[in-house]
Design brief:
Layout: E1 14-15, E2 27-31, H1 36-41, H2 52-59, H3 68-77, E3 80-84, E4 86-90, E5 100-104, H4 108-111, E6 118-122, H5 124-134, E7 141-144, H6 156-169
Parallel strand pairs: 2-3, 2-6, 6-7
Antiparallel strand pairs: 1-4, 4-5
Length: 170
């Protein structure tokens, strides 16, 4: 189990996860940085209160994936790649507002290895960083409300509309 203080590099920064993708990935979903709960389970959207997996499962009319392997299989089955915009940072807790001294990922690591046709941005921080560093990437993208439990506004309908747009193209 990784916590905020476990396995910190000498500079005190916490590292995010490597990207999840395979050669068939066509839609890339970008978040900001893994939450404490996600870091504990070593995979994306590990907080059970985060609506990410529920929204995707309902869109594809499938059972909610529970284990990390179930989630990996789900993503592969639907040609979805996942990553976060922040590669490493100093952070206390899980709030995007707490992200400091960060390094942005190099999206070419994914884009050179699979035919991404659409990008979905999960939340304000991911959108802000994407637009600052990758606005002219040449791939259509949509900014979406965060699936974080901190965002209590309704979001499933907005996400379903965006997923329809993304998957109608692929």
């Amino acid at each position: 189990m990784i916590t905020d203080t476990d396995a910190l590099p000498a500079d005190g920064q916490v590292c995010g996860f490597p990207p999840f993708f395979d050669g068939g990935s066509r839609v890339l979903i970008l978040g900001s940085f893994p939450s404490v709960k996600s870091r504990e389970v070593s995979f994306y959207y590990g907080n059970k209160l985060n609506s990410f997996w529920r929204i995707l499962a309902s869109f594809f009319k499938e059972e909610l994936p529970v284990s990390v392997q179930d989630k990996r299989d789900f993503l592969s089955r639907h040609n979805i790649a996942l990553w976060d915009m922040v590669q490493k940072c100093t952070i206390k807790g899980s709030s995007d507002a707490a992200i400091k001294n960060f390094t942005v990922v190099n999206l070419q690591e994914v884009l050179q290895n699979c035919p991404i046709e659409f990008i979905l941005l999960n939340g304000g921080k991911a959108s802000q960083l994407f637009e600052r560093h990758y606005r002219d990437i040449g791939i259509p993208y949509i900014k979406l409300p965060s699936t974080s439990p901190a965002n209590t506004k309704p979001k499933e309908g907005i996400w379903h509309d965006a997923l329809r747009r993304a998957f109608d193209r692929t």
